[in-house]
Amino acid sequence: MAEHALTQPGEASSETSGLRSIASDFASDRQAFRHVSWGKAMMWVFLLSDTFVFSCFLIAYMTARMSTTVPWPNSSEVFALTIGGTSFPLLLIAIMTFVLISSSGTMAMAVNFGYRRDRRKTAALMLMTALLGATFVGMQAFEWTKLIHEGVRPWANPWGAAQFGSSFFMITGFHGTHVSFGVLFLLIIARKVWRGDFDRERRGFFTSRRGSYESVEIMGLYWHFVDLVWVFIFAFFYLW
Amino acid sequence: MTQAAAHAEGQQHPIKLYLAVWLWLFVLSACSYFVDYFQLQGLLRYTLITLFMVLKAGLIVAIFMHMAWERLSLVYAILVPVGAVLVFVAIMVFEADHTLLSRMTFLTSGP
């Protein structure tokens, strides 16, 4: 039976759910993630490693904040915006959150239209996603400028514990870098979609693989992950 | 796996589902903003923040990243290692408490 499973993938994948399917997939002596292309599997593995990177940053922030004897700056006041004399707490961060969620929505739509093989809509939605991502980075640059003008440094700030600055620049800086590279890759994939690479299965310049609309989904995985990380940063760094 | 089969396996879900999830993400984000806006404090604040965060993360991973429809072996391979992060958090909570205690004992300049 076991040898049968090696030669006939159709039969081996008869288990479709439950722990037994996991056991049979990992014991199959073939590719473990059945029906999952290596591109997608590798993106997931990369995202897992990236999860650990951001986890380490957030845990370092937690440790610094829990162990300091100096009071932690009140993020609600630090990140407040004053418009027309009234001060709105966390307003810029809220807008940034909505921009990033919107970009995640347009990305999900792009993936959907990609699998419907709708070239124009996919490219347009990806460009929209890239635009929203660039807007996010722009607002982050504004936020950094504002805080640096107010005297926040990685080693000191006017309101309290010095670790506030180092945590802030490290965490949001790394996240911003991720968004920036995401925008870059969105533009590259959007160009390929627009040119019809995935309709004509044109081979990629780097991997020489046939183009496929799955690239849009893999790009989407990365982009949603960036949004996912922001959910945690928003909760732990800005709101907590 | 040929390309043709991969296409057939491609994730096809109604647009309506994505729009609904999008709307929910907006609502949940607004909720977590209002937690700060109304200056809720204490246990209520932390519970609400964590609740909205987990719901948002769950929606993004399950629907937007298609984890809900992926094969179980991939889901487990990705989600189980994340549990190690929680162990790390627990370790560092003890570590931070110990550091704080040491600092309060030895660093505070007494009269």
From TrEMBL, chain B:
One Gene Ontology cellular component: plasma membrane
Membrane-crossing segments per the record: 17-35, 47-68, 74-94
Keyword RNA-binding annotated: no
Keywords from the UniProt entry: Cell membrane, Membrane, Transmembrane, Transmembrane helix
Subcellular location as annotated: Cell membrane
InterPro entries (alphabetical): Cyt_c_oxidase_su4_prok (IPR005171)
Domain of life (superkingdom): Bacteria
Membrane topology label: Multi-pass membrane protein
Pfam family, one: COX4_pro
Keyword Calcium attached: no
Protein name: Cytochrome c oxidase subunit IV
Naturally occurring in which organism (per UniProt): Microvirga flocculans
Organism placement in taxonomy: Bacteria, Pseudomonadati, Pseudomonadota, Alphaproteobacteria, Hyphomicrobiales
